[in-house]
Q: What sequence folds into this?
């Protein structure tokens, strides 16, 4: 298994990648860079679209274009580079909280997790925005977190996953897709904490769970921030594999390509030391590799 960089371009903190099956392009965001990116992976060309505030996550829309969660609200863009039409604002203080990891469920609701930037109040939460029947219906499903991440569903949509990165935990709930309700919260993964005095040269830290993706067998792939790896967990939580990544801080995987057997991962270079970046100069790039088991396709936003 060998990773290849999508291009030689690097970004501050890549997140929210998805493969657009009709366009055959890869999309993602650069959060501190305040930009959306998309790439023709066959040509290695990348397009950039600057945003007015930090984009946490994006998803394709069934009627074309994108749904975008920015720090200051959720917006609809009918085409790349087009006008940003406001959809909803989420109930948080934008001075200290912003949108983070998210994606759509199988019925087209847009889910957005948030991040408590001061890491003080545990006010990060998980919301869904349903625009299928007129005015948006915003529901909060979980809270009490520092950094909402790792959102994913099982192939049968009966389990939902969500992680709190600084607390090194991934939760799971039973999920009812039709009623949009969560039940029976449990700890799916509790990862070991970061050792005191850790530096990137040491290998005693497996990282903390960031963004995630699920394959057709229900395995959960967690990008382990600062762990230089993706961990592949079985539905029962068993660790099946650790896939080394050529950057210290992988942020989120997704599956793409025509057969959904290409695993992509975004990475970060924002805030990393000069020594780390000298050792891993492509930190912040997007990487890909071929895998044996295909992933689940992206879900589209419905409005």
A:
């Amino acid at each position: 298994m060998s990773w290849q960089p999508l291009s030689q371009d690097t970004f501050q903190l890549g997140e929210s990648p998805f493969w657009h099956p009709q366009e055959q392009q890869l999309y993602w965001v650069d959060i501190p860079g305040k930009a959306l990116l998309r790439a023709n992976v066959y040509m290695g060309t990348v397009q950039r679209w600057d945003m007015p505030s930090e984009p946490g996550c994006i998803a394709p829309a069934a009627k074309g274009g994108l749904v975008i969660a920015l720090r200051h609200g959720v917006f609809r863009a009918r085409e790349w580079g087009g006008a940003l039409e406001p959809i909803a604002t989420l109930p948080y203080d934008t001075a200290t909280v912003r949108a983070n990891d998210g994606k759509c469920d199988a019925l087209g609701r847009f889910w957005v997790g948030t991040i408590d930037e001061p890491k003080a109040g545990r006010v990060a939460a998980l919301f869904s925005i349903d625009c299928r029947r007129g005015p948006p219906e915003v529901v909060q499903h979980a809270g009490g977190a520092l950094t909402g991440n790792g959102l994913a569903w099982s192939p049968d949509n009966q389990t939902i996953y969500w992680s709190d990165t600084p607390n090194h935990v991934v939760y799971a709930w039973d999920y009812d897709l039709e009623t949009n309700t969560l039940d029976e919260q449990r700890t799916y993964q509790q990862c070991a904490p970061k050792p005191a005095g850790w530096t990137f040269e040491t290998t005693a830290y497996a990282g903390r769970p960031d963004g995630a993706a699920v394959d057709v067998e229900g395995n959960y792939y967690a990008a382990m921030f600062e762990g230089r790896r993706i961990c592949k967990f079985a539905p029962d939580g068993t660790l099946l594999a650790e896939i080394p990544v050529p950057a210290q801080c992988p942020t989120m995987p997704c599956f793409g390509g025509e057969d959904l057997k290409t695993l992509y991962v975004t990475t970060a270079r924002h805030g990393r030391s000069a020594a780390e970046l000298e050792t891993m100069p492509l930190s912040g790039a997007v990487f890909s590799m071929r895998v044996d088991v295909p992933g689940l396709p992206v879900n589209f936003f419905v409005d």
User: Anything to note?
Assistant: The mean pLDDT is 97. Residues 103 and 215 are 15 Å apart (CA to CA).
